[in-house]
# Entry
Amino acid sequence: MDTRSTFHWIILILSSLVLLFILAPLIGMVLDTSPSEFFQTVKDEEVQDSVWLTLSVAFMATLIFSFMAIPFAWLMARYNFPGKSIVQGLVDLPVVLPHSAAGIALLGFISREGLIGKAADAIGLNLVGNPVGIAMAMAFVSLSFLINAARDGFAAVPERLEKAAMNLGASPVRMFFTVSLPLTWRNIASGFIMMFARGMSEFGAIVIIAYHPMTAPVLIYERFNQFGISYARPASLFFILVALVIFIIIRIFSNQASRSLKKVTLNNG
Amino acid sequence: MLELKNISKNYGNFALKDINLSISKGEYFILLGRSGAGKSLLLEIIAGLRSPDTGSIYLNGSDITKEKIQRRKTGMVFQDYAIFPHLTVFDNIAYPLRIKHMQRDRMYYAVNEMAENVNISHLLNRKTNELSGGEKQRVAVARTLVTSPEIILLDEPMASIDAPLRDDVRSLLRRINTMGMTMLHVTHDYSEAVRLADNVGLIHNGHILQTGDPDSVFSRPVNKFVARFAGIRNFYRVKIYREKGKPVAESANRKYILNEADYPEDGLLIIKSDSISVYLGEQKGMDNCIKGIITELNRAENGYELFVDSGDRYHVLVSKNGFEQLSLNTGKTVFLSFSTDSLRII
# Structure
């Protein structure tokens, strides 16, 4: 064995250990869950409701906030302004905050005494304990993933392509939708998936904003607390499998969309 | 046609200063300058991609200084083409027509006609990443021409094209110009200016130094920078006075006899490298004949370049035949001769 292959063996072993570290708990979970336990959990309406609530709220939060986050990402990629690094720091802040602390901060904001909470209360909506509050908690902790991915994508699009589009007669809006956005689509799709995934898996902030209605992570935590690991495990496995299927579907959809986006933007032109 | 009046723009540590330029309809104008001279910035200001700090831009008599980019009728071809990579060649050319909501049939006709004009009909369904530099340049030109601009702004159109393909692009640009299109082309390449331009302008550090037809600019450069662009390598700081009835320019090392004319008291003497003749023996009767030693010798495009030291240092171009006949080599003593007509004071 020469030096080069020794090095490669070491890399291979270290890589395998990392993968094993990720896979072993998941495989253990599958092996430790009997099919009957699993199917019983799948049929449990409380579990079904919590998984559905988690997925739907995470998806809606990602979708709605992306309408603000994507133009903001373009702004961050294209313009330099005083205090830009502070703004970028603010974008990254939710990622480094302890999520329970983020939940407390958000609670002060959306509770009836808070700024948004008061406005919502005026139209008869209590955001605490409400899917809207859950969506805000999910978005708060995950928005930076979408903004940063989209910003990197926009920054990688040569500015001269946007200038060329404008010189050819495109308005700034048309330039954005026919040049900047199609060329950044993959980054945006990745950021969208990351934000959705991060929002869906959030526990710390949500448990402070809304213990009920229960999202899947809160339900799993409650079952573990009340009944132990064997009761929490099938619900966890179900949630993980559903999330996996959803991610695969989104990934396939985003790949198809990036191929057909060109057609869509042109036909609309 | 296009007129720039007192255009100035501060851009970081760089500034365009008081640019005045006038280009007539159908003219091929080349703005020549080194990288960082402000050429591309000036084009972007004309196209409306940047605003000038002061000054005005007139196109066909109308002030377009504050006109929207989309309404300027200035078609820009970018240095590295700026072809949209997610669109086919057809869709790139059709891009501005779709913006105008042109009917599908008319659009197909217009794109195909333009593609035929620039010889890329066979590429229309191709993705742009499969194209060569020359083909991309043609797509960029076609995409701009299809907008029917009043003037085409070309930013270093040959810079990213392999040398063998440059002749094709050059003849395409010349053909577009002969069809009546006004062209403003910026480049750092002196040979492009000589081959294409009706008129040239020299830009340096944000200033336009000299404009005019290529012959007058390059034969009568106003300063050392312009002379260097014209390929002149021999410059000598001289004092000028009369001696024995003849005007004489004296450098730190020797005297040169000049043509009869009015001269300033001092200036810069320039001698074109290809107007110096090389001999093995002294040329009696010549006003300027200098003995020197070849210190360096290199292959050049059409022969050889020599550096000859005779107190002043001379850059001389000789043909391959002349080089072989004289058996020139480093260290050899030669005589350089040049007529008084070939000496110029700037």
